[in-house]
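Good morning,

Both structures are done.
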Amino acid sequence: MTLIAAPSIAIQYSEAETISALAALAQPHRLHAFRALVVAGHDGLTPGTLAEGMGVAPSALSFHLKELVNAGLVTQERQGRFLVYRAAFDRMDALLSYLTENCCQGEACLAESRSPCPS
């Protein structure tokens, strides 16, 4: 289990939670929805706006959002008659930290002089 410290919250990400999060993202509609919520930032999106932007039926999107919520990657908040979904940035950061915790044995993974894209 890895301890990831955020400015005000420490999140423990276990191997089981990592597998759950990656499994949730391993489906095209869920990955697209999660990425759209990341782009939307802290304002989030309503299911209708998200479904329209993705070209997915709202009923199908509801199922996918539930899976992302269950994996802890997305939060849901009721605002009046509407639900607003947001990417759980702390959980996303914890997942990325867990995956890269021992990257390159603590060394920089890319040499400074090396360009990430071939010329």
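Second structure follows.
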Amino acid sequence: MSQFSTQFAADRPDFAAIAAWIPKGSSVLDLGCGDGSLLRYLKETRAVRGYGVEISDLDIVSCIANGVNVIQNDLESGLADFENDSFDFVILSQTLQATRHTEALTREMLRVGREGVVSFPNFGYWKSRLNVLLGNMPVSKELPYQWYDTPNVHLCTLNDFETFCRTQNIAITARSVMTGTRRIGVLPNLLGSTAAYRFQRGI
């Protein structure tokens, strides 16, 4: 594993959780890919092929520097440029909470990809609950913004996301909950700061 991959496995434990679900050589579409770090990580560790979708000009430049194929597009306008089942996996990493049209976007993820993967900060984490109990919006490594400058519009808990999947006929096939690099198995909605889910169309 390269120094880049080792660093990101430590800094972003959800990267390692996502990579564990991606078979080698899979085709991947990474939505809201930022600077392309996840796709670069997956290329180095899982030999994936695919594209990122990003709107920020600065992040587009960073994607190119990271050797990532990237398309400039606004996720809120949908994925009409992609055909059905174009990719093995469509990934939305640490972006779900910043999307305005969550239902439509998850439907599009499962139209374009055979499977979907999301990761997001868990608003049910005990430190977040404590901050709210004390009268403040939480600020943490997972939620680094102040209330007035946050891009997050749909914060949710693990329970919220799982209920959402049931109502949308989405079948969850795997879940990984973590706090830092530590995997959480007991009381995950209370003790986990970050969650990753793998899912597909329901029957």
